[in-house]
């Protein structure tokens, strides 16, 4: 593992690393914020999953989360959003909603994607093992959050691994990828045309069969251009109602899909997770 960047930030450190990933079959970068408390001992850790077109750096440079992470003594790990590098296939037409920057946090089963696109295993297994080995974090105190495609990733990963995370939150998540154009394109390519296999990565479907419940907070702007066609929080809300799942979904007036929205409310999300970590 190679350190490629470091900055002092709110008394802690904002760091960036490159490492070989056996799961993704390529080199990957990730960012980690260590709060000042990490100099005295281990701290809890929040995993942040970003959306379409992002690398690990969008959240680090735009969300302003470090101030709150330092306040609550929480480390934040931000992975990239897809495998990268020569030999990693991309959308044949170069569209932003599939391929590079659009791994959708699934394990692809279809050629040519399955050689590299295994972001689910990377985020759930390989990256936490690396983080727990090399940084002063408590691997038993983990939470997960994300935005848009990353919100979908955070919700599905938490719902599939409820014992692993103490809490989950999301900003403007894709709530049912089986029922929106971004998700249908990604799942059909990564998983194949059998829609039954897609439900394993659909938070609205997973919620209906959840055996354990986690604290879950979602913020959604009502001026978000993607709200009706791609995000569909009403589908998750309906599933939560049917399953009796304690979902806290807040519609935020006037907010769009951007990192200005995330920066405005990230303090609330860090405070939410700190209660359970
Ligand atoms: N470029 C696209 C829109 C892409 C976009 O909005 N990406 C979002 C995530 S969308 C869902 O996963 C994002 O986080 N962008 C990075 C940023 O720094 O804002 C278009 O033209 O519509």
Task: Provide an overview of this structure.
Keywords: Hydrolase, Serine esterase. The active site is at residues 148, 224, 257. This is S-formylglutathione hydrolase. There is one protein chain. The chain has 277 residues and is of the alpha/beta class. It is built from 9 helices and 9 strands. It has helices at residues 57-62, 66-72, 119-134, 149-160, 181-191, 203-208, 227-231, 233-243, 259-274, and strands at 2-9, 12-21, 26-34, 43-49, 75-79, 137-147, 168-171, 216-221, 247-252. Strands 1-2-3-5-4-6-7-8-9 form a 9-stranded mixed beta sheet, sandwiched between helices. Helix 2 packs parallel to helix 9. The chain starts with a strand and ends with a helix. The mean pLDDT is 98. Bound molecules: the ligand N[C@@H](CCC(=O)N[C@@H](CSC=O)C(=O)NCC(=O)O)C(=O)O. The site of the ligand N[C@@H](CCC(=O)N[C@@H](CSC=O)C(=O)NCC(=O)O)C(=O)O has 13 residues, from helix 1.
From the N-terminal CA to the C-terminal CA, the straight-line distance is: 27 Å
How many distinct helices?
9
Q: What is the gyration radius calculated from CA atoms?
A: 17 Å
Adjacency order of strands in the biggest sheet = 1-2-3-5-4-6-7-8-9
What's the pLDDT, averaged over the residues?
98
What structural class results from the helix and strand content? Answer: alpha/beta
Approximate strand percentage: 15-25%
What global shape is seen? globular
Task: Return residue spans where pLDDT drops below 50 for at least 5 consecutive residues.
Answer: none
Query: What small molecules does the structure contain?
Result: ligand LAXINWYW
Count of strand segments: 9
Residues in helices, as a percent range: 25-40%
Pattern of helices and strands: EEEEHHEHEHEHHEHHEH
Query: Main β-sheet: number of strands, strand sense, barrel status?
Result: 9 strands, mixed
């Amino acid at each position: 593992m190679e350190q490629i960047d470091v900055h002092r930030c709110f008394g802690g450190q904002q760091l960036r690393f490159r490492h070989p990933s056996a799961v993704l079959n390529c080199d990957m970068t990730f960012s980690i914020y260590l709060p000042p408390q990490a100099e005295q001992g281990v701290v809890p850790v929040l995993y942040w999953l970003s959306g379409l077109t992002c690398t690990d750096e969008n959240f680090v440079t735009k969300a302003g989360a470090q101030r709150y992470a330092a306040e609550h003594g929480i480390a934040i790990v931000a992975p990239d959003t897809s495998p990268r590098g020569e030999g990693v296939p991309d959308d044949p037409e170069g569209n932003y909603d599939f391929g590079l920057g659009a791994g959708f946090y699934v394990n692809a089963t279809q050629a040519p994607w399955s050689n590299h696109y295994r972001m689910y295993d990377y985020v759930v297994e390989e990256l936490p093992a690396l983080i727990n080995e090399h940084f002063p974090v408590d691997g038993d105190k983990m939470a997960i959050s994300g935005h848009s495609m990353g919100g979908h990733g955070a919700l599905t990963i938490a719902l599939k691994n409820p014992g692993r995370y103490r809490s989950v939150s999301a900003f403007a998540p894709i709530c049912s990828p089986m029922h929106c154009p971004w998700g249908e394109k990604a799942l059909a390519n990564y998983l194949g045309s059998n829609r039954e296999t897609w439900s394993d990565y659909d938070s609205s479907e997973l919620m209906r069969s959840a055996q354990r419940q986690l604290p879950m907070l979602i913020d959604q702007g009502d001026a978000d251009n993607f709200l009706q066609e791609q995000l569909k929080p009403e589908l998750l809300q309906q599933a939560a109602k049917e399953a009796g799942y304690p979902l806290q979904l807040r519609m935020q007036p006037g907010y769009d899909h951007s990192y200005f929205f995330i920066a405005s409310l990230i303090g609330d999300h860090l405070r939410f997770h700190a209660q359970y970590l």
